[in-house]
């Protein structure tokens, strides 16, 4: 009887986990506003500039097609709050990589969720489920 209870509890746990991911919805938020907030809050230091695909090109490419795929706890958070937090994590990774390689910009940024490219000149894509929010970006490290 105890084994049946343990088995039943395990099944309920798996159902709960899968339903947390099943509610995954795509959201689009203003990229420039999010970057400006992160700089104003001191999360980004402003030494590296970020440009969505179609908004800036040129400079010397240091590395092309770099990808970051960040996740955060989205439980009990609005999509906007969770997505802003996870975007900051992705941008911090790009900022650190750019600075380490002597670059001062990340250009040609596109949303890259599950390796599917989504281009916008104004917004980034974030996916939020019940428990997890995620942002994946692909871009080029550049020195202007």
Model description:
Helices cover about 35% and strands about 35% of the residues. By secondary structure, the chain is of the alpha+beta class. Strands 1, 2, 3, 4, 5 and 6 form a 6-stranded mixed sheet that branches. Strand 5 (about 125-130) and strand 6 form a beta hairpin. The radius of gyration is 18 Å and the shape is globular. Residues about 1-20 have low confidence and may be disordered.
List the helices and strands and how they pair.
Blueprint: H1 2-22, E1 25-30, H2 31-40, E2 49-52, E3 60-73, H3 79-100, E4 105-111, E5 123-128, E6 132-143
Parallel strand pairs: 2-4
Antiparallel strand pairs: 1-5, 3-6, 4-6, 5-6
Quick structural summary:
The chain has 144 residues and is α+β, with helices and mostly antiparallel strands.
């Amino acid at each position: 009887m105890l084994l049946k209870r343990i088995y039943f509890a395990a099944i309920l746990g798996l159902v709960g986990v899968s339903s947390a991911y099943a509610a995954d919805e795509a959201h689009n938020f203003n990229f420039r506003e999010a970057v400006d907030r992160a700089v104003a809050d001191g999360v980004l230091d402003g030494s590296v500039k970020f440009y969505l695909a179609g908004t800036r090109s040129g400079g010397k490419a240091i590395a092309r097609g770099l990808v970051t795929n960040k996740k955060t706890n989205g439980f009990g958070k609005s999509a906007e709050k969770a997505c802003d937090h996870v975007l900051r994590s992705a941008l911090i990774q790009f900022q650190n990589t750019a600075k380490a390689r002597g670059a001062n910009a990340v250009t040609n940024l596109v949303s890259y969720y599950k390796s599917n490219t989504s281009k916008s000149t104004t917004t980034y894509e974030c996916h939020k489920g019940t428990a997890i929010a995620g942002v994946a970006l692909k871009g080029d490290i550049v020195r202007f």
